[in-house]
Amino acid sequence: MAIKISVLIVGGGIGGLATAIALRRAGHHVTVLEGARELSEVGAGIQIPPNSSYILDTWGLLEKIKEKAVWPEHMNIRRYANGKVISATRLNPDLEDKYGYPYFLIHRADYIQLLCNAATEIGAEVLVNAKVKYIDDAKTSVRLHNGTVFTADLIIGADGIRSKVRTAVIPEKVIEPRRSDNCAYRATVPAAAIQADSEISHLLENHNSDFWIGHRCHIVAYPIKGGKLYNIVMSHPGEASLTQWNESGNLYEMKEPYLKFDPIINKVLSKITQSQKWTLADIPPLSRWVSCGGHITLIGDAAHAMLPHLAQGAAQAIEDAATLGVLLSQIHSVDSVPDFLNLYEQIRRPRVERIQKNSLENGYTWHLPDGEEQIARDKAMREADELRKANSSAKVESPLQWSDGDFQPWLYGHDAILVAKKALQEMTRNGQIGFQEKSKF
Ligand SMILES: Cc1cc2nc3c(=O)[nH]c(=O)nc-3n(C[C@H](O)[C@H](O)[C@H](O)COP(=O)(O)OP(=O)(O)OC[C@H]3O[C@@H](n4cnc5c(N)ncnc54)[C@H](O)[C@@H]3O)c2cc1C
């Protein structure tokens, strides 16, 4: 008989809330401790690829999310100077046809709200204003800044790139985020302001995810909020804080690197009245994901923060959550928590480390200076598109990773739930699951 254990999740971002859903579905007692006064996200968009929309569907959330989502037709890679499309990857309905689940765009605040509602409706407790100050590996407990102590059978650090919980998992070394040269400026513009301007209104005739790529900088833009807002992320060399999402960005610094970009996107940028900036960073592969005591682990950015150039950070947090949900649904003893966490690390680490590495490489590919390499890149992308058009089932190599015939199915076709179930069967077959102890709770 599987038992119920008590779980503390530190951090109520996308990863923490998703883990709360997965572990409640597995029957456990779940408390989320969120440090902020309220659950919030930056006023920006997020792309949800099929490898995570599949999991959201398994949890019964896809229909609700669909009400808030935008379904992009294409991912267009454009030449920075004139906006000409170099490569167009068809997203909807093609990815759904290929992988069974759609690629969509959503406002982060809507996403967080949906996940939070789903977690609390099935019985997770979500506490805000609960900032964790200290984590005790030996006692599997945390102490908040206000002195309150919580103890559990398992603690999960979902507290982002500057994770506090990580210091309890790897106490011997301070893991600093690796700052990239670039920071991201994020902004939104009402779609009506774009639709009212005949020079740029065509950008919203169809819903697409558009990228303008140039030397060391790029712009990503797509509609969110059912098409009512246009979300824009600008990535270029600069300085910004790593401690807060919403440092206010100077508008001149935001626009200046793009003066040589397509006049169309410059017209869009001229409509931005405020922006937020954030240093783009990742973390190096960690020496371990499970604490020495064996009852604390990490998920999401706390475990494997990555650059956003594959739009997979949150998707990987969802996969982590689903994996833990499947594995821990079969736990028979509190003493076997370490075995399950080690299995979780074993399953997840190779995949996320490959995605971290490829995200970094995708950035290099986009940010080439004009010249031979850039010309060869653009030619290869165009040729890949042509070959795919001629034979849609051909495995075509592309410098654009999410279009590449090998990488795309590996990335988007991944079934995190099945992988976890198979690993669990294997573990059971090998007799590695303990059956003796009862939960502390
Ligand atoms: C520009 C940009 C674009 C991106 N686009 C995409 C995309 O399109 N698709 C995608 O999948 N990913 C994308 N990502 C990545 C994605 O945003 C992150 O990977 C994801 O938000 C990580 O979620 P998380 O829950 O692990 O961490 P976070 O979102 O950082 O959440 C951590 C939470 O923990 C809380 N917290 C921190 N410390 C404590 C503490 N001591 N006590 C209690 N609570 C604490 C914080 O308040 C926060 O709520 C993008 C990232 C960037 C920078």
UniProtKB/TrEMBL annotation:
SUPFAM superfamilies: FAD-linked reductases, C-terminal domain, FAD/NAD(P)-binding domain. This is FAD-binding domain-containing protein. Residues 5-358 form the FAD-binding domain. The keyword Metal-binding does not apply. The keyword ATP-binding does not apply. One of its GO terms (molecular function) is FAD binding. Gene3D superfamilies: FAD/NAD(P)-binding domain. It comes from the Eukaryota. InterPro entries: FAD-bd, FAD-dep_Monooxygenase_BioMet, FAD/NAD-bd_sf. Belongs to the paxM FAD-dependent monooxygenase family. Keywords: FAD, Flavoprotein, Monooxygenase, Oxidoreductase.
